[in-house]
Amino acid sequence: MLVRYFAAARAAAGTEAETVPLDRPARSRREVEELLARRHPQPPPGQPPLAEVLARSSYLLDGVACPDPQAPVPDGAVLDVLPPFSGG
Fold this sequence. Notes:
The protein has helices spanning 8-13, 29-39, 50-55; strands spanning 2-5, 17-19, 26-28, 58-61, 64-65, 72-74, 78-82. The strands form 2 sheets. The protein has a 5-stranded mixed β-sheet with strand order 2-1-7-4-5. Strands 3-6 form a two-stranded antiparallel sheet. The chain has a single domain (2-82), classed as Roll (Ubiquitin-like (UB roll)), CATH 3.10.20. It has 3 helices and 7 strands, in the order E-H-E-E-H-H-E-E-E-E. The model has no long low-confidence stretch (mean pLDDT 93). InterPro entries: Beta-grasp_dom_sf, Mopterin_synth/thiamin_S_b, ThiS/MoaD-like.
């Protein structure tokens, strides 16, 4: 699965994208969030923890809004993490 981070999520993760192998064919979006938070427990200096940013972010799964934290995320998907943006 490819995870792409934007804005504050990119800063908190310390990268703009990463490939994350899933240990089973599909996980829920919430499980993916927890996995990402474990992969990035320490934020870069001056940034909030990734777990905090993920909690207030919106998600796109393969380009489609994914508001349901229980939605399955298949291996091979693209998950975009979109924190709130100032100004709309």
